[in-house]
Design brief:
DNA helicase; alpha/beta; three-stranded parallel β-sheet; single chain
């Protein structure tokens, strides 16, 4: 976990990690997530809600995922070894 005040360079560290992984042909093993859409765009990642398929189309907060959705998430994450979460404090 990387902490720090806004504007101190946490997203730049994320970019550097992604560049390192890309250089070593391991970017496919890394997923970048953020709590807000603005932060997700800044790190070329997904929101945590999007990754969990909890987007705007989910009307009920207690909606459970279907087996198809669970299988899809499992398949997507099967080869992910590293997960970076930006803006974790939000």
């Amino acid at each position: 976990m990387l902490g720090g005040a806004g504007g101190c360079g946490k997203s730049r560290v994320t970019e550097a990690i992604c560049a390192f992984m890309s250089h070593h042909d391991r970017l496919h093993t890394l997923r970048s997530l953020a709590s807000s859409s603005a932060a997700a765009v800044a790190i070329n990642g997904l929101t945590i809600q999007s990754m969990l398929r909890e987007g705007r189309n989910r009307l009920c907060i207690n909606t459970t995922l279907t087996q198809t959705e669970i299988t899809s998430i499992e398949t997507e994450w099967k080869n992910i070894n590293y997960c970076l979460i930006d803006e974790i404090s939000m």
